Amino acid sequence: MSTAAISLRGIHKTYGKNIALDGLDLDVGEGEFFCLLGPSGAGKTTTLKTVAGLEEPQSGTVSLDGTDMTGVEPYDRGVAMCFESYALYPHRSAYDNLASPLRSPRYKLPAAEARERIGEIAELLGIGALLERPVGALSNGQRQRVALGRVLVRPARAFLLDEPLSHLDAKLRQAMRAELKAIGAVRRTTTLYVTHDSVEALALGDRIGVIREGRIVQTGTREEIWHQPYDTFVARSFGRPRINLLPGTVTAHGTFLSADRFFEIPSAPAAVRSVAPGTPVQIGVRPRDLSLGSAGPGPGGIELMGTVYITEVLGRATEVTVRLGAQHLSLVVPRADAAGLRPDAPVRLTVRPESLLLFEADGADGEPGRRITG
Ligand code: ADP
Ligand code: MG
């Protein structure tokens, strides 16, 4: 196996009684753009600080390019980190803030090359026209981009970026996602990127790691994370509206029984057949995998009958919430398909069996149910 650029093994980090990292393992490949996604408090910032050497874990090892970093000072690790709370020189120009790290003797960059790096990065971050202004006169979003630029100009073995677009408005954030990956230094450099925004993770990550309560739940490409989520936590982390999770039990014939009705699963997926009858499970179906109306000719559509609860226009699509017995199911359909729907009207829904996911029931302690793979 080739050596990972960043490798963490069994990292435990506690602050008093607070467990920040609980046996975390993580590998980021050479040159990879890796997104670490998780809710607030999951341990994302602590992970980055541990890689950077700003925090010493109680146990576990950090290696960079195969070399154990235990006891190696942050300065000597050769990584460049961008913090959530950025420290800039407010009285100095944006250009000066970008250029000052490059004056360090360790880089010895020729002046022309430094100017070129700064120019490219400032342009792609959309701050090219602001370079002469004092940073103190810039908006929060502009300052955050200067802080990000200040990290990206540095020749580093890895970039560690902690929610670097969080202070930008939605439109700019979307534009920046594309620009960020166009920056030459980012394309060439291993990047560990932290976010709590799943859209950002899906857009940016060559691979994504999902973190919960100080551990990595799953690592994979966006396709793997989307189609083969490890558990209901990962499944719920991606996609808006969220995946529908219907609790029920599997019966002897592989039919799914939920609260007060059967869902016939005619060509029962292997996952359903692998479960002992009577086992509590959850069926996961994403809102965009449900359609209105009957399956029509062709194999294997599963039909469900329900009543319209509420509809909500989302641009060109409409979110329809349907009542199915005691449960609510959300689907997203083209706006025209939902035009005639009125509350309480009966509707027929169709879903293809191959788009169903099967999970164990969530634990009583809130532990997410794992996906059953059959
Ligand atoms: P994230 O970046 O995912 O929001 P953090 O890594 O900042 O999460 O924090 C993980 C956990 O560790 C949280 O419960 C947080 O309260 C705790 N924690 C982080 N830093 C400190 C600290 N300096 N002192 C005490 N608790 C901390
Ligand atoms: Mg954080």
TrEMBL record:
Q: Cellular component terms, GO, for this chain's entry?
A: ATP-binding cassette (ABC) transporter complex, substrate-binding subunit-containing
The answer, when asked if Transport is one of the entry's keywords, is yes
| Signal sequence segment | none
Pfam families noted in UniProt: ABC_tran (PF00005), TOBE_2 (PF08402)
TM ranges: none
Q: Which UniProt keywords apply?
A: ATP-binding, Nucleotide-binding, Transport
Sequence ranges assigned to domain ABC transporter in this UniProt record? 6-238
Show the GO MF annotations: ABC-type transporter activity; ATP binding; ATP hydrolysis activity
Q: Which domain of life is it from?
A: Bacteria
Please name the InterPro entries in this protein's record.
AAA+_ATPase, ABC_transporter-like_ATP-bd, ABC_transpr_MalK/UgpC-like, Mo/tungstate-bd_C_term_dom, NA-bd_OB-fold, P-loop_NTPase, Transp-assoc_OB_typ2
- Keyword Lipoprotein part of the UniProt annotation: no
In Swiss-Prot or TrEMBL terms, this protein is called: ABC transporter
Question: Lineage in the entry?
Answer: Bacteria, Bacillati, Actinomycetota, Actinomycetes, Kitasatosporales
